[in-house]
Amino acid sequence: MTAPANGQRAEGTPLLDVKDLTVHHGQLQALDQISVRVYPGEVYAIIGANGAGKSTLLRTIAGLHQPTTGTVLLDGQDVTGLRPERRARQGIVMVPEGRRLFGSLSVEENLKVGATYARTGPWTVERVYETFDWMRDRRGQQAAQLSGGEQQTVAIGRALVANPRVLLLDELSLGLAPVVVQRIYAMLPQILETGLTVLLVEQDVSQALRVASHIHCLLEGRTTLEGRPADVSAEQVEAAYFGLAGASNPAAAKAPPVSLDGSSQPGEGSASLWPG
Amino acid sequence: MSLITDVGAPPAAGFRVTRSQRNVAWTGVVALAVVVVLAMFPYIVYSGTTAILVQAFIVLTLASMWNLLAGYAGLVSVGQQAFLGLGAYFVLILALHGISPFAALPVAAIACGVAALPLWWLVSRLRSGYFAIATWVLAATVMLIIERFTSIGGGSGMPLPGLAGLSPTLLTAYTYWAGLAVTVLALLATYLLLRGRLGLVLTAIRDDEVAARSSGARVGLARMLVFVVAGVGCGAAGGILAISQLQVQPSADFTVQWTAEMAFATIIGGLGTIEGPIIGTAVYMVLQQTLASYNAWYLIILGLVAIVIALFARRGLWGLVDSRLHLRLFPVGYWLRTADGNGRRGGRRE
Amino acid sequence: MAWVNAIIQGILTGGLYALFACGLSLMFGVMKVVNLAHGDLAVVAGYIAIGIIFVTHVPVLWSVVIVVPIMALIGYVLQRTVIQTALDRGVLTTLIVTLGLSLVIENGLLQFFSANTRGIGAGMTLVTGSFSIGSQIEIGYLLLVVFAVAVAVLLGLQYFLSGSRYGRLIRAVADDKEAAQLAGADYRHVFGIASALALGTVALGGIAYGMYSSLDPTAGTDTILLFAFVAVVIGGLGSLWGTLVGGIVLGVAQQVGAQINISDEVIAGYIVFLLVLVLRPQGLITRRAQT
User: Fold this and answer.
1) Which residues contact C143 (CB under 8 A, 6 or more apart)?
2) How many CA atoms within 13 Å lie on the side-chain side of B329?
3) Residue A27: which CATH number?
4) Same domain? A248 vs A141
5) Which chains contact B through at least 3 pairs of Cβ atoms less than 8 Å apart?
6) Interface list for chain B against chain C, based on CB atoms closer than 8 Å
7) Based on the domain organization, do A141 and A179 belong to the same domain?
8) Labelling B80: which of A132, B13, B174, C70 has CA 20 to 30 A away?
9) Within this chain, do residues A76 and A97 fall inside the same structural domain, yes or no?
């Protein structure tokens, strides 16, 4: 691929390499030739409006959905054909949308299930208790009785104890109060310092921009924006998110995605989605 | 009482929604011819053959009903033998009061339909697996209750009165015609029901129950109707059984083997298609006749075939034919024809 | 009093019915499958036991040790092959396939063993012996042992489900099988284990039934599945100990019915079942964990 102009992104193999993924829900096309490259240690955020295909992308990477075409590579290995549980054991672990805890199990049991097929690594049930200190006292409580924010934390813990290489976070903020969401995202650095890589989907754009090292915007299954938060203006994000340029100028919407680290395709000079 | 409380918009310009296909007229003629030919059988074939055909009529009627229940309403009933037995016993009871069994037949069938109502009330709320077992508990209970009444034969059953006056030839003929009539009516009723509103509602339920409910379809009512109709049909078949056997017997009339027969015939022929039970019954009878001397083997083979078909060829033998030839003898679906004349089939999806 | 005796009999019979029912309840709880061939497989276990005893002349109780693991294995294989395939196609197909299995098994047994009834351990003291309390109360050894076994099995299941790794996985998969996949669990394998447990327990019940009463090809549906289902419904869907409660209620109802009129025994049980269906479909013990 073209070398990045200013070299922010690491060289070498991406940890997670998604190539030209096209996904259908029955007859409906949800994703159109999406490519994502996540390098070790990154926090890669996927943003977009409802129905843009964000969760579909994550679920396909996790293996819950089979793509029509395209490949998913984990550290160079093709995992496209693997069932979700195999991918989890290989190191792609997802915290699904809506938490999806095992409601009839206790907090500790939820964590233990997560640890059943864990890879070796720094994360253990003990360490999760140390990181989220309220959990230890409540570890015997049934998961269904926790609040939304608590459930979300346990869900993250359940994924962490598996010692993933790539942690997929699907809409952490869904259904949670903003204060709670912020607190959860504040824990992200602690998680990252253990060597994880995070790929997250987030509706809340400002939250995403705050934590991400790289953002990727989807609209109706297509990529409309890609780059570092620092290199992106609010207007550009807005335009990419809502496809505003597309509404007034269909040609622009079909324009190749803008890569703001300078690696846009040769021949395309414009770094703006606005016409003219 | 309307099954659908909403009226859809007319199709968009450039499209026509049609019912008929080129082979419908043919089907009608052929079906009529077949029925006429069959009706003449007592004059031209041996009574042994008509007896076998009466058996086939019973199985075909039962299979059509089971198909309605499982293939269209999504109700897997393992207790239809309750109505079979009830139909037989209602005929017996009326015959004991002096009414000719043949005249009693329609009354018995309707009585079974009425009996279906309280039974439906008992089981309608259950989830499908538990619904299945509950229908079977009901059938077992009905049998036990009936067995207690010695006036209708108790546990060992009794002969059916009122037919002694007929000569054997006439009796065979009348039995045969009654069986034929019941079968034709059952198939006709199934066809007409599915062609109308009920069919739409049932297909909608089958595809997506929540969506069906929210667009106005009265799901519970539709299912209840199907259950009652199936009760009537199976009851009529039971009446034919009693007449053809010249007796009623609890262990034979209420056995769960009847469910085996109607289920296997339907599944092999094609669940969810009207043509399926016809083919399935044919397969069933052929197997039964050829393996008759080997006792239960035909049921074992039928069962294994049914399992394989249920897993790998959902729409049965007819489905295999249909998908290759796009043949539909009983047009109950809709065709969407675009302005350029090409058709896309809708109305019934696998 | 004869009534007291009847009630004690009924309670003890509940243990047998709990053995019938706990596997059914487990399979439904974990994978939402009602295995219509559940009872027939118990009968198969009984016939295998009879066969083994006949061929190898091992003591009757040894046949239990041999047959139960075999049936558990059959349960696993059946689940991973036939039932999983049916599950992937939908609820309707699963019912139809298990119905087909049930009828095929019954007719197969009819073919090979004829409709005659067969018993297990006919001459044993365990089976025929009893002890008396006072003059009116007589308690058969067999029913007492079966009740104890049933309680032990339920305790074992409870311990397994709550304390062990696979027990946790089973409960997790039952709650949310997709989330379990994301945690690295192959739910098909977990389903298989649940099926193995279900068939192992019902095999135990089948052999016990062969000793208590007698086996015939149709006993699987006529008796075992029916009673299992009634016990589950009475005790509440999703509750393991509820199957014991349900079994006891059913057993007592039957014995009381028999006291009133000997031929009322079976129908009394059905009437209780219908009453529960009408009055309280959730059963007497509702599942406490509502997610």
Assistant:
1) C9, C12, C13, C15, C16, C212
2) 19
3) 3.40.50.300
4) no
5) C
6) 70, 74, 76, 78, 122-123, 125-126, 128-130, 132-134, 136-137, 140-141, 144-145, 148, 256-257, 259-260, 263-264, 267, 271, 295-297, 299-300, 303-304, 306-307, 310-311, 314
7) no
8) B174
9) no
Q: Provide the pLDDT confidence category of residue A144 given band limits of 50, 70 and 90.
A: very high
* Residues A157 and A170 both lie in one domain: no
Nearest CA in chain B to C276: B122
Cross-chain residue pair C186–A83, CB shorter than 8 Å: yes
pLDDT of residue B218: 78
Instruction: Give me the number of domains chain A comprises.
Output: 2
Last residue of a domain, one of A114, A132, A163: A163
* The pLDDT value given to residue B338: 52
Residues of chain C under the 50 pLDDT cut: 284-291
From CA A189, how far away is CA B78, in angstroms rounded? 59
Nearest to C169 among A63, A83, A113 (CB): A113
In eight-state DSSP terms, residue A81 is T
Pair (A27, A133) in one structural domain: no
Residue B259: partners with Cβ closer than 8 Å, 6 or more residues away: B66, B77, B78, B79, B80, B81, B136, C99, C103
ipTM over 0.90: no
Predicted confidence at residue C128, as pLDDT, reads 79
Find the domain containing A42 and state its range.
1-87+165-276
Q: What does the pLDDT look like over C113-150, one tens digit per residue? A: 888 888 888 777 777 788 887 777 888 889 999 999 99
A79 and A104 both lie in a single domain? no
Average pLDDT in the B160-189 region?
A: 91
